[in-house]
Design brief:
- The chain has 167 residues and is α+β, with helices and mostly antiparallel strands.
- It has one domain: Peptide deformylase (Peptide Deformylase, Alpha-Beta Complex), CATH 3.90.45.
- The protein has three helices and eight strands; from the N terminus they run H-E-E-E-E-E-E-E-H-E-H.
- The chain is globular, with a radius of gyration of 16 Å.
- 30% of the residues are buried.
- The protein binds nickel (II) ion (NI).
Length: 167
Amino acid sequence: MAIRPIITLGDPRLRLVGQPVVKFDRELGQLIDDMVETMDDAPGVGLAAQQIGLDVALCVIRVDEGLFELANPEIVHLSGEEGAWEGCLSVPGYRAWRWRAEHAVVTGQDRHGRRVTVSGHGYLARAIQHEFDHLHGELYIDGLPEGEEIITEEELERRLDEETEAD
Ligand code: NI
């Protein structure tokens, strides 16, 4: 296992569209293990292959519900709406308010090629949508509604402190 360097905004490899995973072999298992180790080391909630410079439709997610590895994911259901300050390991130090579906269901394959379905609410639903976008070369800061700003983590902390004081 190895920690891979995470590439950041401006690196064109983040814009690569993931090609389908077709070989579910030992090499894929090692890549997934590396991605999990890289994500946990960061630490982060999810990591897409694009973030280590690969054009592969493969991502990993770790939340309270567990660890999920998804090859060739397809979102099959989205419903509800929830807003939150979102961030990304490839856009370090920044956050933006993003509306996402509150419930997401995704199907894909695990390292052995077995079909898996993940149904998530809230934070997990957000992670599914965020990683799915990465696999299509998209970042969470793309297509923010007009007026929605990207702020530094320090600025966010300052605002949240202010809100707490106002309560
Ligand atoms: Ni991200």
